[in-house]
Specification:
Length: 159
């Protein structure tokens, strides 16, 4: 059973980031499947650990992209990544220590975490990248005027 289905509306327009988001969907669906099919705690934790490791790599890729392109909200986006990672890590620790169980709230958290982050925060990165690409294209298509050619009077006064 699928918990999350990828939709084209979720694409931010950066191929690497979109591919990673699709894979995060796959991992959350695998986590959901292990849980609903009666998988053992160990099987569920294996998938959750893969999800955590992949999310960390994904966050690093996003942050590198934002840094390389001068994204103005880099610091606040990094802080969100840290909060999300910490929340998932705490969830993993609680499940590993058997002080918590996977339930509808856990699954809802994972689903909301991914969808909200993509639709609110990552879409802004995509929009920024598109605006930046348009500006770069315009600059190469419409170069700035070279200025007025020198006149005899201007040359004479500068000599």
């Amino acid at each position: 059973m699928i918990l999350l289905s990828w939709q084209d509306d979720y694409a931010v327009g950066v191929p690497l980031i979109d591919a990673e988001h699709r894979y995060l969907f796959d991992l959350i669906n695998e986590f959901h499947d292990r849980h609903t099919s009666g998988g053992t705690r160990g099987q569920v934790l294996v998938v959750l650990n893969r999800l955590i490791a992949y999310a960390e790599n994904h966050f690093q890729h996003e942050e590198a992209l934002m840094t390389e392109n001068g994204y103005p909200r880099l610091a606040s986006h990094q802080a969100l990544h840290e909060q999300l990672y910490a929340s998932v890590f705490v969830l993993n620790e609680r499940l590993a220590l058997e002080t918590s169980k996977v339930d509808a709230e856990t699954l809802r958290f994972l689903k909301t975490w991914l969808l909200d982050h993509i639709l609110k925060e990552d879409m802004d990165i995509g929009d920024f990248m598109k605006r930046k690409a348009v500006q770069a294209e315009k600059a190469t298509r419409d170069p700035a005027p070279a200025g007025d050619p020198p006149t005899a009077a201007a040359v004479a006064t500068s000599a």
